[in-house]
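User: Hi! I have a protein structure encoded as tokens and I'd like to know what sequence might fold into it. I'm fairly new to this, so please keep things simple.
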């Protein structure tokens, strides 16, 4: 799936004149290394942001927030003020003396909700980027990062949307210089998994950190695969215990010739497969859509 370029209204956007993409966050590796006094778990994770995501836009025609897209229905419940797009807009407006009612936003919800790929965090981050540009705000990157952290631990990394090693609960971010231009496929079996329940179900919380990452990053696909083979997603066994469909997705992905590597992202239930070339991920997504019409499958480039 191709996303519109940053700041480009793109074709078919009607009254939308400013667009920001909200890329999925994929945890290629996720180690749980400890627990803070407040109960939050310390993580060590390699994250990437493929070109698969939601779209946040400024709307000149509607009032408030308009949500469309295949997963718009999954956001029901709390109403507009609970949406992370609105919360991000209000926070930035308050911090910079703007009137949040002066702006109307549109969200195209393409990513499944509560699925381990940080869709809500990505939407919040995209809103901060969009409004900072729209309002031509004279504020520092550090200030925007501080606001992002108030919205959630994953929001600062989504603000950058660059491959990174993240630690703490997500506040320490080290960008990774190189990642191979390989393909990635995301597959979700259509079951929601509660992040707190997954953390509660963990058997161990003191696992070793990730192995070192080469200073130059990973230019070669095989080097990335070699590194990943020494890592885990420590949340995968707990999540699979709560949602056995995850094991079904993983064994299906592992059985595909094009899939060089498969694992769950975040707290699940979305899993990913890496392919040497993007075209292979797209082909695989087409096959899965045909064989498992109730699953969500999307293909893109790793970074
Ligand atoms: C696991 C990750 O997907 C890795 O990227 C994210 O850190 C989860 O981020 P998230 O879905 O935005 O989760 P939050 O809404 O911040 O947290 C939900 C709940 O999960 C638990 N939680 C979350 C993150 C963390 N590092 N330790 C935790 O123990 C806490 O009980 C928290 O109240
Ligand atoms: N714009 C939004 N998109 C998605 N979820 C939102 C949004 N606004 C509020 N939420 C709420 O945030 C919660 C988490 O949604 P999200 O899709 O970010 O989870 P996730 O993919 O599991 O994230 P993570 O990978 O960080 O665990 C949901 O319960 C949802 O109702």
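Assistant: Happy to help. Inverse folding works backwards from shape to sequence: for each of the 303 positions I chose a residue that suits the local structure. Here it is:
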């Amino acid at each position: 799936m191709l996303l519109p370029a940053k700041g480009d209204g793109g074709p078919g956007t009607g009254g939308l004149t400013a667009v920001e993409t909200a890329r999925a966050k994929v945890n290629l590796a996720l180690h749980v290394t400890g627990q803070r006094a407040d109960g939050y778990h310390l993580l060590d994770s390699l994250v990437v942001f493929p070109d698969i995501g939601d779209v946040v836009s400024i709307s000149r025609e509607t009032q408030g927030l308009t949500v469309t897209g295949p997963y718009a229905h999954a956001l029901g419940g709390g109403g507009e003020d609970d949406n992370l797009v609105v919360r991000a807009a209000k926070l930035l407006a308050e911090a910079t003396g703007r009137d949040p009612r002066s702006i109307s936003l549109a969200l195209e919800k393409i990513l499944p909700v509560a699925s381990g790929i940080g869709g809500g965090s990505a939407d919040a981050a995209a809103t901060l980027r969009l409004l900072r540009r729209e309002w031509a705000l004279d504020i520092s990157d550090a200030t925007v990062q501080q606001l992002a952290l108030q919205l959630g631990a994953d929001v600062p990394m989504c603000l950058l949307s660059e491959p990174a090693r993240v630690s703490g609960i997500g506040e320490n971010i080290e960008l990774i210089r190189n990642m191979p231009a390989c393909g990635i496929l995301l597959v979700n079996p259509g079951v929601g998994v509660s992040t707190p329940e997954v953390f509660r179900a963990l058997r161990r919380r003191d696992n070793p950190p990730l192995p070192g990452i080469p200073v130059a990053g990973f230019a070669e696909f095989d080097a990335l695969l070699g590194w990943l083979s020494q890592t885990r997603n420590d949340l995968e066994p707990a999540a699979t215990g709560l949602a056995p469909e995850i094991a079904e997705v993983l064994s299906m992905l592992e059985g595909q010739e094009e899939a060089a590597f498969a694992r769950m992202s975040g707290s699940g239930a979305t899993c990913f497969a890496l392919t040497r070339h993007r075209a292979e991920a797209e082909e695989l997504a087409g096959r899965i859509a045909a064989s498992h019409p109730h699953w969500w499958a999307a293909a893109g480039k790793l970074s």
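A useful reference point when you look it over: The chain has two domains: 16-175, 183-301. Feel free to ask if any position seems puzzling.
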